[in-house]
Write a structure and sequence with these properties.
Strand order of the largest sheet: 1-2-3-4-5-7-6
Structural class: alpha+beta
Order of helices and strands: EHHEEEHEHEE
Number of domains: 1
Strand content: 25-35%
CATH topology: Aminopeptidase
């Protein structure tokens, strides 16, 4: 396994993995699958300060983790980043999410971020468990805000103070 910066050549796998989460329901608030063309603008927003990492098994991308600005443009929040991560369903439950998130937490500390925020649906119990395992704490909830089919669910806000993180 290796973790490295994503390249444009990884786009087909990035889109495929994200579309798996959409199809599963309750893992993302997106409801419609994406094409590579639709996700290219998203991909091009990542840079050295806000990177996109991939987890590879050999040459196959099996997961990814991104760091993006939290409330972009608001200078008082420039040392806060939002973390997002996704794993191919065939590789979930093997500790690989832990490996990926741990690495990205270390990178965020190195870059001088003070806090990481994760925003997830309250139906995403696996992701919530991973965040808790990594030391994140629940900082808030937006109840019944997302409508997925005939079901509503809330969004949870988890935070991690990187000064205290043990990664």
């Amino acid at each position: 396994m290796q973790i490295c910066r994503a390249t444009i050549e990884d786009m087909d796998r990035l889109v495929s993995i994200y579309n798996q989460s959409i199809a599963a329901g309750g893992q993302t608030a997106d409801l419609d699958a994406y094409t590579i063309e639709q996700r290219t603008e998203w991909f091009l927003k990542f840079d050295d300060h806000y990177p996109l990492y991939v987890l590879k098994s050999g040459e196959l991308v099996i997961g990814y983790c991104s760091i993006s600005p939290y409330r972009a443009g608001r200078r008082a929040l420039e040392r806060v980043a939002e973390i997002s991560y996704y794993l191919d369903t065939a590789y979930q439950g093997r500790g690989l999410g832990t490996l990926l998130v741990r690495r990205v937490i270390r990178e965020c500390k190195r870059k001088g971020f003070r806090h990481l925020i994760a925003i997830l649906l309250d139906t995403n119990q696996a992701s919530e468990a991973l965040l808790i395992k990594m030391g994140f704490e629940r900082w808030g909830k937006l109840p019944d805000i997302a409508h997925i089919g005939k079901k509503t669910c809330g969004q949870l806000i988890y935070g991690l103070s990187l000064e205290d993180a043990q990664c």
